[in-house]
Amino acid sequence: MNYQEYLAPVLEISKKAGNAILEIYQSDDFGARIKSDNSPLTEADLKSHHVIVDGLKALTPEIPVLSEESKGISFEQRNQWNTFWLVDPLDGTKEFIARNDEFTTNIALVHNNKVILGVIYVPVLDTYYFASKDHGAFKQVGTDAAEKISVRTVPVVNNEKHYTIVASRRHGLDKVQELCKKMPHFELASRGSSLKMCLVAEGQADLYPRLAPTSEWDTAAAQIIVEEAGGELIKTDFSEFLYNTKEDLLNPHFYVLGDASENWRELLS
Ligand SMILES: Nc1ncnc2c1ncn2[C@@H]1O[C@H](COP(=O)(O)O)[C@@H](OP(=O)(O)O)[C@H]1O
Ligand SMILES: [Mg+2]
């Protein structure tokens, strides 16, 4: 499977889905309709889902698609899949409702329980983050040339490490704050959706501890982007983070780690 060839068409599909979301997000009656019944969210989610699923089906008719909006597929069936597309058509739904721009579309290709290709699109910024196994991670703004991204080493000021930690706006913040106490100097930033993992991948944050529930479509695209940028996404016991291995689609708690030379095990245990 020459999955590298899928990157360009998947970027295009992401953009099309992002445009469908933006059409609703920027509509004149968005505010009033969100206040009354959240229907713009449902519409945006479903439109994005259909654009992505139709696009992927046309691209690779033989590869099944699992989307947050079509998650009711039994493990008995999913367990037969060696390769499948794993999709979150609108990640950061609460941020979409809050209208703070921090939402993404996530498309990942999973092969033998590991992610081999991932594309995250940020509609409001017209920005893509993408990666494929062994070919590096990239950021692309609009039609500009894609730039290679990588994690950073933790900055040192006066011989002391200064960590930037990124966390959810809404989930598990108390546990993250507890964890931060282990670090002599830290700055805490909040972001919705997969943007947190993109920040680690592009060297703007050092650590994202996720000590609250997520599902497999929330992390898959970001995992390969972080890994190809030189970082890691691992379980809190530092074991490997895998996909499609069980009946439910919930993830274990995890850490996204930047700087590979950092002794994260010692710091976080
Ligand atoms: N109780 C729960 N179980 C599973 N996933 C949850 C959850 N609460 C939140 N999430 C996941 O966390 C994501 C939001 O995380 P964050 O706060 O970091 O942006 C949601 O993505 P969606 O917005 O796609 O639903 C959702 O998938
Ligand atoms: Mg999500």
TrEMBL record:
Catalytic activity: adenosine 3',5'-bisphosphate + H2O = AMP + phosphate
SUPFAM superfamilies given in the database record: Carbohydrate phosphatase
Gene Ontology terms: biological process: 3'-phosphoadenosine 5'-phosphosulfate metabolic process; phosphatidylinositol phosphate biosynthetic process; sulfate assimilation
List of residues binding substrate: 68, 90-93, 218
InterPro entries: CysQ, CysQ/Inositol_MonoPase, Inositol_monophosphatase-like, Inositol_monophosphatase_CS
Bilayer topology annotation: Peripheral membrane protein
Compartment(s) where it occurs, according to its Swiss-Prot or TrEMBL record: Cell inner membrane
Residues given in the record as Mg(2+) 2 binding sites: 88, 90-91, 218
Gene Ontology molecular functions: 3'(2'),5'-bisphosphate nucleotidase activity; magnesium ion binding
Residues that hold Mg(2+) 1 according to the record: 68, 88, 90-91, 218
Gene3D superfamilies listed in its UniProt record: 3.40.190.80, Fructose-1,6-Bisphosphatase, subunit A, domain 1
Superkingdom field: Bacteria
Enzyme Commission number(s) of this protein: 3.1.3.7
Annotated Gene Ontology cellular component terms: plasma membrane
Keywords from the named record: Cell inner membrane, Cell membrane, Hydrolase, Magnesium, Membrane, Metal-binding
Names of the cofactor(s): Mg(2+)
Summary of the function given for this chain in its UniProt record: Converts adenosine-3',5'-bisphosphate (PAP) to AMP.
Family the UniProt entry places it in: Belongs to the inositol monophosphatase superfamily. CysQ family.
NCBIfam families: bisphos_cysQ
PANTHER family: 3'(2'),5'-BISPHOSPHATE NUCLEOTIDASE 1 (PTHR43028:SF5)
Name of the protein this chain belongs to: 3'(2'),5'-bisphosphate nucleotidase CysQ
UniProt organism field: Pleionea litopenaei
